[in-house]
Amino acid sequence: MKKILALVMAMAMVSSVAFADSVLINGAGSTFIYPAITKWFDEYSKTNSDAIFNYQAIGSGGGIKQITSKTVDFGATDGPMTMDQMTQAPGRIYHIPMVMGAVAVAYNVPGVDKGLKLTPEVLAGIYLGKITQWNDPLITGQNAGVNLPASSIVVVHRSDGSGTSFIFTDYLSSISGEWKGRVGKGTSVNWPVGLGGKGNEGVAGLLKQSPGSIGYVELAYAKENNLSYAYMQNKSGNFIEPSIDSTSKAAEGANIPADFRFSIVNSPNPEAYPIAGTTWLLIYKQMDDHVKGKAIVDFIRWAVTDGQKLTAALDYAPLPASLVDLIQKKLDQVKY
Amino acid sequence: MSRQDTSDIVFRRILAIFPVSILILVAGIFFQLVSASIPSLKKFGLGFFYHSTWDPVAENFGALPFIFGTCVTSLVALLIAVPIGVGAAIYLAQYAPPKVSKAISILVDLLAAIPSVIYGLWGIFVLVPYMRNTVQPFLGKYLGFLPFFQGPNYGVGFLAASIILAIIIVPFIISVSREVILAVPSVYKESAYALGATRWEAIWDIVLSYGRVGILGAVILALGRAIGETMAVTMIIGNNVVISPSLFSPGYTLASVLANEFAEADTGMYLSALIEIGLVLFLVSIIVNILARFLIWSVTKGPGELIK
């Protein structure tokens, strides 16, 4: 009996030694950041073996719920937490911007390539169900020389709750008073018109197969699937192609509040693409665990600096340097 | 003697645990659904069942379009699948050469094992374009005077979803109905032939009459699957919160809205309303099952008893 006990204790000691120098850190939330975060974990682990990161892309809503109940060490969300949600959390939560991305307005109009020029009024009109024909004067007026057919517009949106929908409806709310009043912004909204496709692939599927359709997908997805996408007119009146550069520009012009709960849609920067958004990591200001807290902060410092070069290849826009400085200062305040 | 009694009692008690655990499971699910949907039940009351607005931003929720969508797609799927399924089962059990019957039965079981996401993808890439380019224009042209076949033609919608559902449930109907028909004692058929019945009469009056309870059971099983089917339907129903008599119209089902919105539901009332959708789905399934049992019960009371 004693022998067995000794053996069990020895095994317990061995295993605790084996795990002592690496700590497991769990995160959950946004699906938008998932490709970036897995890339970061992969690269980061090559030089830092003391922390093992694990991320579950369960959706932004789930990420907020799990960080609020402290079942994960960090959350990730595409829309900032509301004041209501912040007060429900057991401690002060910091929003740390990690990646930015553009949402492309893609369409399938036979005979029309990428680069159709759309104004905010036209996009809101289409999604409110007021502009229903491709040869509407409001569309043709901006696109002289483009042969737009007299066919009806098939409106496509995401059916599943998603950060992409949040960015898109955030934009529509910022440029259309009627949209703000009737529909509002959210990961899921009460769409006035249109077909719902599940996921980026569902929207892309509907777009590819329905002549005369218009929808919105993440920029990387539009590029990979060779969808034609529109140049959107920004706040300064310029028509801008969605790209990594024009998305970074959106953040340079944006007004950044101290708690980082900003929106970069409809940026005043004249070179900015107007439909862009951010994914934030959610962490507690006061970390419960010293080792985990330090590992998380170290990782974030790395991801917002060196890590940004890796994500550009995945069509995420790098954070502007001015914002990175602010993030570093914010991280100094995290206690662990 | 007494030893045998003890073992008998123990065996009986152990067996009794299993059905009781089913009861506990169902009661537990029901309790959990009700308790989690209390905020929504309090706020919307019975209006949840007949209001047709679903607005997560304003937190104004009504489930009618989803209930409508679930009922319409399941019903239309049954209308398509039952004649095909029962017809195929009769052929396989009564007419087909044994080798053919066996080969087709294996294929049918194979169909039943295909994950529904595969049906959904097939639906997006094959069925939907076919519906838009061929089937729906044809229906609109010849049956367009009926309200069921009017309106814009997107390809996705109630009809496409119902057809996918029909394809998914047909194997269940064939498989179970075939077993039921094979289980009809051959003496009954032989007696019918001896009395001068034709093959058609023997099948219709004797085999189907004897086996109808089992066949209805197969249909109920299929209906349950159709009501709960999520992924394939979500992918091709169009996910639009509307109530329309037209089968061309995009729609929404109870299971689809759960699949679409549950992960991102971030406020308490929203989550509660979605859980109430789960409760409604649970109740719809129970009501449909009770109705179906009632149907079976009323049928077995009929002239079918003469045979027994």
Give an overview of the whole structure.
Chain A has 14 helices and 12 strands. Chain A has 336 residues and is an alpha/beta fold. In chain A, strands 1, 2, 3, 4, 6, 7, 8, 9 and 12 form a 9-stranded mixed β-sheet that branches. In chain A, strands 5-10-11 form a 3-stranded mixed β-sheet. In chain A, strand 1, helix 2 and strand 2 form a beta-alpha-beta unit. Chain A starts with a helix and ends with a helix. Residues 14-19 of chain A have low confidence and may be disordered. With 308 residues, chain B is mainly α. Chain B is 75% helix and 1% strand. Chain B contains 12 helices and 2 strands. Chain B has helices at 2-36, 38-44, 47-50, 64-95, 98-112, 116-143, 158-182, 186-194, 199-228, 231-236, 254-261, 268-300; strands at residues 54-55, 60-61. Chain B has a two-stranded antiparallel ribbon with strand order 1-2. In chain B, helix 1 (2-36) crosses helix 12, helix 7 crosses helix 9 and helix 9 packs antiparallel against helix 12. The longest helix of chain B is centred in the first third of the chain and has 35 residues, at 2-36. The interface between A and B is medium-sized, with 34 and 32 residues.
Brief summary:
Chain A has about 325 residues and is α/β, with parallel strands linked by helices. Chain A has 14 helices and 12 strands.
